[in-house]
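Hi R.,

Here's the chain you asked about this morning:
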Amino acid sequence: MTETLFSITFPLAAPFWALMILAPAWRVTERVIASPLIAAPPALVYLVLAAPDLPKLLSVVSRPELGPLAEYLGTPAGTALGWAHFIAFDLFVGRWMYRQSRELGIHPLVMAPILLVTIMAAPIGLLLFLPVRALRTRKEEPAPTV
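And here is the predicted structure, written out as tokens:
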């Protein structure tokens, strides 16, 4: 069951990524991505994987140490759990970035590569997005009156 859950985790998120990257201005995309529930399917996979292993998981994360954490993540159950965690939160962060970009009028051709990086390495994608967002936010601020 662990391998099956691991295998379906990314396909549960992929349609949402495809909408944000390939059809960002489509009304359907905007309506679908407006819901934070898009991250629920991989989060549910996480829950199903975590539930039977909860005592071990809680002991590892309540007092995180590199050795025990590496040992746990090195198991099939730990790897599948980590993968579901990555996919759920990467999608949630990607959703936020997509919505911010639409709100701020950041061009989809700027966002597409940032979202692609976010799929692969969300913290790097976030680091790429934040300055773009900051520049766009600064442009939106009204000029101070004297």
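One quick note: Residues 76-104 form the longest helix (29 residues).

Cheers,
M.
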